[in-house]
TrEMBL record:
Transmembrane is among the record's keywords: no
PROSITE patterns the record matches: HTH_ARAC_FAMILY_1, HTH_ARAC_FAMILY_2
Protein name: DNA-3-methyladenine glycosylase II
Naturally occurring in which organism (per UniProt): Streptomyces tricolor
Ranges of residues in domain HTH araC/xylS-type: 87-185
Taxonomic lineage from the root: Bacteria, Bacillati, Actinomycetota, Actinomycetes, Kitasatosporales
Cross-referenced PANTHER family: DNA-3-METHYLADENINE GLYCOSYLASE (PTHR43003), DNA-3-METHYLADENINE GLYCOSYLASE 2 (PTHR43003:SF13)
Length: 488
């Protein structure tokens, strides 16, 4: 974590937005905490103290700045580049597990005792899981208060609070305003439909949307995903219901429109959308590392800020990875679309052409393998995968241990290094996953003068660690495949 005092003071004085979300500045004289890029005049260094999380600031008695709104900072990149206990716990908390299952449920998913989880979070973040979840609830509540006309009682329960009194007390404590005062200060907008929210998802600049949205649009499964009116749209399977999201790139944010069947899913829907677009990445650190290789540097300079397109549903992506083995992108979409039509849950989309949720592993586990239009060996791979996912023998969610998940995937019939690594990169979120056997990667490496054999390329890529998944995005950019370009 970035808590070296000298570096923190320097970042605050220069209003460096790259460090937003990495740490928070608490001002001892005003009892307010800010993001490093806060536009106000920086306080004197002796009046600054630094915390690794907004929850730690709140627990220490500081309230959020009304100018820079530190609760809306991008998330820390730490939680998406690591696979240790704290990082996995933070990903689960962002996914709403503490609100749904409590701290014991969080600990059970991680395979540790409640006490051990609490101790490690407190040591690194200055706050335990309950405080971290409380800070997230406060942020969700503020979002609902400011962007909807919902009655405050509905806002309270949708944000995860157990009572209206707790909701009121928390909002006042964190923001120094009552919920009604927050709503009065919010900009007025046109009336929205119930359950529909228009949000701005922040990110650290730069962000290159071409490969990110180009890949999602080019591989979109009909009925589940589509590119429409300059936005990537898809259906979401959520803990309390379902949703539809539209995501569109803007110069300084991602425009997000969410339609939810149950507003209690707002926090997890936002978390999954951010994960899908890799919005908590630190592109400056990534590009700096990759630019150190003279053969990669021109690619980075040509289009800095490439992200790794990920997924909102890890099991879905694993299934689609198997469907895409040794076939074209178009053929993989066709196979997936047939599964969706036959086994997906139908839903209505008044604003577009989305028709289904992608079928769950449980729904796919009961299908007749003979109905799959693929070679027999790949049918075995498919049925084994969905059965393991449905039985809970294979975990690919945000709580997954990356090394263990890789080992379990390699045990499955028909799973080789390419399939495992693409799942590690897109589903598990491993930023160092690499695809040295990928034909496009090998072709790009040869054009650039890099080694093109898998073993030699892997040896050269050791210098790109821990960001080899991002190197994959830059190497793919040398190809003329449509996944590299933003649709029009």
């Amino acid at each position: 974590m970035h808590l070296d005092r000298e570096h923190c003071v320097r970042a605050v004085r220069s209003k460096d937005a790259r460090f937003d979300g990495w740490f928070f500045t608490a001002v001892l004289t005003t009892r307010i905490y800010c993001r490093p890029s806060c536009p106000v005049v920086p306080p004197k260094p002796e009046n600054m103290t630094f915390y690794p999380s907004a929850a730690a600031c709140q627990q220490a008695g500081f309230r959020a700045c009304k100018r820079c709104r530190p609760d809306t900072s991008p998330g820390s990149p730490e939680w998406n580049r690591r696979a240790d206990l704290v990082a996995r716990a933070m990903r689960l908390i962002a996914d709403g597990v503490v609100d749904r299952e409590g701290v014991p449920g969080l600990a059970a998913r991680l395979g540790y005792s409640t006490r051990q989880v609490e101790r490690q979070l407190l040591a690194e973040l200055g706050a335990g899981p309950l405080a971290l979840a409380r800070a997230q609830r406060a942020q969700t509540a503020r979002l609902l208060v400011e962007t909807t006309a919902l009655p405050m009682a509905e806002v309270a329960f949708a944000a995860g609070f157990s009572s209206i009194r707790t909701f009121n007390d928390t909002v006042r404590e964190v923001f120094a305003l009552s919920p009604s005062e927050l709503r009065a200060r919010a900009p007025r907008s046109g009336a929205g439909t119930p359950g529909a929210l228009a949000l701005r998802l922040p990110f650290r600049a730069p962000l290159n949307p071409s490969n990110l949205f180009g890949h999602l649009a080019a591989t979109a499964v009909p009925g589940v995903e589509e590119w429409r009116d300059g936005a990537y749209r898809r259906t979401l399977r959520l803990p309390y219901g379902h949703g539809i999201v539209a995501l569109a790139p803007r110069p300084d944010h991602i425009a997000c429109r969410l339609t939810l069947s149950d507003l209690r899913d707002l926090t997890v829907a936002i978390s999954r959308c951010r994960r899908l677009l890799d919005l908590d990445a630190d592109p400056v650190a990534v590009d700096e590392r990759l630019r150190a290789d003279p053969l990669l540097a021109p690619l980075v300079d040509q289009g800095p800020g490439r992200r790794v397109p990920r997924t909102v549903d890890e099991a879905e992506f694993a299934v689609r990875a198997v469907l895409g083995q040794q076939v074209s992108t178009a053929a993989a979409r066709t196979h997936a679309a047939r599964l969706v039509t036959a086994h997906g849950k139908p839903l209505d989309d008044p604003e577009g052409g989305l028709t289904h949720l992608f079928p769950s592993p449980e729904a796919l586990a009961g299908l007749d393998p003979e109905t799959l239009a693929m070679p027999r060996t790949r049918r075995t791979t498919f049925t084994t995968l969905v059965r393991r996912l449905a039985d809970g023998d294979l975990h690919l969610g945000v709580e997954a241990d990356w090394a263990e998940a890789r080992a379990r995937l390699l045990e499955l019939p028909g799973f080789g290094p390419w399939t495992v690594d693409v799942i590690a990169m897109r589903a598990l979120g491993d930023p160092d996953a690499f695809l040295p056997t990928d034909l496009g990667i090998r072709r790009a490496a040869k054009e650039l003068g890099l080694p093109s054999t898998p073993a030699a390329l892997t040896a050269r890529a050791a210098n790109w660690r821990p960001w080899r998944a991002y190197a994959v995005q830059y190497l793919w950019a040398t190809d003329s495949h449509p996944i590299n370009f933003l649709p029009v």
